[in-house]
Amino acid sequence: MIRFFNTLSGKTEEFRPLQEKEKEVGMYTCGPTVYDYAHIGNFRAFIFEDLLRRFLEYKGYKVKHVMNITDVDDKTIAGANREKKKLGEFTETYTRAFREDLQALNILPANYPKDQPRATQEIPAMIELIEKLVKKGTAYVNDGSVYYRVTAFPSYGKLSKKKLDKNIQGVRVDVDAYEKEDGADFALWKKAKEEEPAWDSPWGKGRPGWHIECSAMSMKYLGETFDIHAGGEDLIFPHHENEIAQSEGATGKPFVKYWLHCKFLLVNGEKMSKSKGNFYTLRDLLTKGHDPMTIRYVLLSTHYRTPLNFTLEGVKSAGEAVERLTSCYAHCLHLNVFGIGYKVKVEDLTNWNVNLCSCLPDARARIEQALENDLNISVALAEVFDALKLINFCLSKKLLEEKSLKEAIDFFKRVDRLLGLKITEQEALPPDVFKYYEQRSTFRRDPRFIKDKTLQQLADDLRAKIESLGWIVKDGRPGEPSTLQKKRRAWEKV
Ligand SMILES: [Zn+2]
């Protein structure tokens, strides 16, 4: 049974999509506002959503995933004006950058419709929705702008748990993002101003407010009621609260069944801000030489409802974690390609009592169970690394036989479908690298190795040979074999 914490009910609930029999899930995730490069806090949310989608697909659901691009709002207009560019030209740069970043982090692109819907291309759907609201009296026109009448929607505040202040009648906000004006009437359509792009509408020239964009695009592509709406917790109010008011106000039907929100990200325990100098875009980190999969691991490995504290020490240990996974896989892959090259002794198997053919499927089941429990990634990863220890043990004691080797490779492939860490894109070791590696391991296993300078020198020479072939040897923890990793090139734009 899959369970998620639903912000709407404030409870962990069993996940039962609307099209349960067909195993179809409709999921909308708020896309980026393309006025700047996205920062790692943004990517925390996108990676949480990616894990959610991968997990549902792993469980056999067909996920219809829509993610919009907000290419017209207060921020994009201000940015384009600052740089004296046309809005479309300004937002195109950051839309493209965003897609490159997604690809670098191996985040599955939204799969419906074919291209991510852009707000500027969906204006008719927004106008149609606003017209419905005006007709019902839930929205009103004021001097060429249209506002949502919050008091006309009695359950306003049900997502954010804000109580409607009775004195807000007629209090209006024009800005897209606001924090304190609990329940103020907000703009659905903003009258054209000078230096702002504008579209024709029944209320004269103007442009949509940010909140109506997501209501219109999500319902256009997923229907009036759909399964999952996800995003960062900063979107709960006012954005998602307003989306509910707009959509349910227009259709009279429940808008979304499950609302999932991930917590914020801190850097060294502090809020990320440009003035504090602790503000990172993904690009900042990649150009400093950090591997994208390391960053993915950092953002993935804390449960989504726990605040994530981003530190450079955290990045370092994430890098080691990814490396342990990829090199173990590469080792298995090599044995698979070039043959095991040894006979497993039956008495060894009995003595050590490690049967990967039963241990790994059990581990897989526990990983699934952990994720079924509101995507408990911490438990899932602990299971992954317990299994990894076992595989490494079998590798170092030469206990892998053909069947268990296949099981190990299969294990990595399944885990990678869930985690998206590109473990299985690792290449098999070239024969020479493996030969030198095996020789070096024999030297290191020799009890005299700790004191014998000649043996140490031989091992060092082999390490140099391996490195000249483009691979790096890392000597493992006690009980784990040394591991090999292909040297990676510094990050280049995708
Ligand atoms: Zn949105």
Please describe the structure with a list of short key phrases separated by commas or semicolons:
494 residues, alpha/beta, Rossmann fold, 2 domains, five-stranded mixed sheet, four-stranded parallel sheet, 45% helix, 14% strand, elongated, disordered C terminus, binds zinc ion
Could you characterize what this model shows?
It is a single chain. This protein is of the alpha/beta class. It folds into 2 domains: 18-300, HUPs (Rossmann fold), CATH 3.40.50; 311-486. The chain is built from 15 helices and 16 strands. It has helices spanning 40-58, 74-82, 87-104, 123-136, 210-222, 236-251, 282-287, 292-300, 312-338, 346-352, 356-372, 377-396, 402-419, 431-445, 453-468, and strands spanning 3-6, 11-14, 24-29, 62-67, 139-142, 145-148, 172-173, 185-191, 206-208, 226-232, 256-262, 265-267, 270-271, 308-310, 471-474, 483-486. A hairpin with a 2-residue loop joins strand 5 and strand 6 (145-148). The relative contact order is 0.11. Residues 490-494 have low confidence and may be disordered. Zinc ion (ZN) binds next to loops.
Short overview:
The protein has 494 residues and is of the alpha/beta class.
> Based on CA inertia axes, which overall geometry fits?
elongated
Describe the biggest sheet?
5 strands, mixed
Share of residues in helices: 40-55%
Number of self-contained structural domains: 2
Q: Please work out how many helical segments DSSP would assign.
A: 15
Write the layout of secondary structure elements.
Layout: E1 3-6, E2 11-14, E3 24-29, H1 40-58, E4 62-67, H2 74-82, H3 87-104, H4 123-136, E5 139-142, E6 145-148, E7 172-173, E8 185-191, E9 206-208, H5 210-222, E10 226-232, H6 236-251, E11 256-262, E12 265-267, E13 270-271, H7 282-287, H8 292-300, E14 308-310, H9 312-338, H10 346-352, H11 356-372, H12 377-396, H13 402-419, H14 431-445, H15 453-468, E15 471-474, E16 483-486
Parallel strand pairs: 3-4, 3-10, 7-8, 10-11, 12-14
Antiparallel strand pairs: 1-2, 5-6, 6-8, 8-9, 12-13, 15-16
Helix pairs in contact: 2-3, 4-5, 4-6, 5-6, 8-9, 9-12, 9-13, 11-12, 11-13, 14-15
